[in-house]
Amino acid sequence: MASTRLIFGFHAIQTLLKQRPEVIQNLWVDGHRRDTRMQKFCEFAESVAIKPQRIQTERLDRLVAGESHQGVVAEIHDTKPQHYDLETLLDALETPPLLLILDGIQDPHNLGACLRNADAFGADALIIPKDRSAPLTPAAKKVASGAAETVPLITVTNLATTLRDLKQRGIWVLGAAGEAEESLFTADLSGPIAWVLGAEGDGLRRLTRETCDRLISIPMMGHVESLNVSVSAGVCLYATQQQRYKA
């Protein structure tokens, strides 16, 4: 019998319904929900030949061990995750690369949120180190709202070596650092870019920081001293795309 796994949440499942409905083996929805969002969700599922099964809320809760499922859970064929080779991916790009790199992010929710930002702002891939990194758990996929299915997630053995390889390819490696003198407001973000972000509080590790071409700060105008890494990722990616759009 083929192995299966569960995913949950409207966005994650809707992405699969749009892109790969054939992998969905069972789709369960909360039988108590009759609101417009649920009705539209079920209608779309049926339009791609997936019939939702209405079950009790308590059964949905048990399926996902208490995670917040929003009333929708899918069982899918557990196909092997697609392996992305960084060199091959970069060689295939027809536009200047825009990469997001996470250094020491160990919260799966932050990983999921960064995937969502990477999808929203057109990053070509998200790169994480093999060690000291959050796993792509079902909870992370839920937070990603479908982006785990669309953004290449590349795991590398040695982050510093990867950064040096990117620089050899002419990609500017920019580290986000709160104390950096160069401001995001005035930074030149043209050309191939790889943004590197560390964990909130700890920031970039020393070797990562030293390997970056430049360190850039996000100007803070309020009283808080730092932003969540996923928020910072969104800000940096958006600012990069804004400059590209104006060019």
Characterization of this structure:
With 247 residues, the chain is of the alpha/beta class. It has 2 domains: 4-77, 60s Ribosomal Protein L30, Chain: A; 86-246, SPOUT methyltransferase, trefoil knot domain (Alpha/beta knot). The chain is 36% helix and 21% strand. The chain has helices at residues 10-19, 36-47, 57-63, 86-92, 108-120, 138-144, 159-168, 206-211, 229-246; strands at residues 4-8, 24-30, 53-55, 72-77, 98-103, 125-129, 153-156, 172-176, 182-183, 193-198, 214-217. The strands form 2 sheets. Strands 7-6-5-10-8-11-9 form a 7-stranded parallel β-sheet, sandwiched between helices. Strands 1-4-2-3 form a 4-stranded mixed β-sheet. The longest helix is centred in the C-terminal third of the chain and has 18 residues, at 229-246. The protein is elongated.
Keywords:
247 residues; alpha/beta; 60s Ribosomal Protein L30, Chain: A; four-stranded mixed β-sheet
Layout: helices, strands, pairs:
Elements (H helix, E strand, L loop, with lengths): L3 E5 L1 H10 L4 E7 L5 H12 L5 E3 L1 H7 L8 E6 L8 H7 L5 E6 L4 H13 L4 E5 L8 H7 L8 E4 L2 H10 L3 E5 L5 E2 L9 E6 L7 H6 L2 E4 L11 H18 L1
Parallel strand pairs: 2-3, 5-6, 5-10, 6-7, 8-10, 8-11, 9-11
Antiparallel strand pairs: 1-4, 2-4
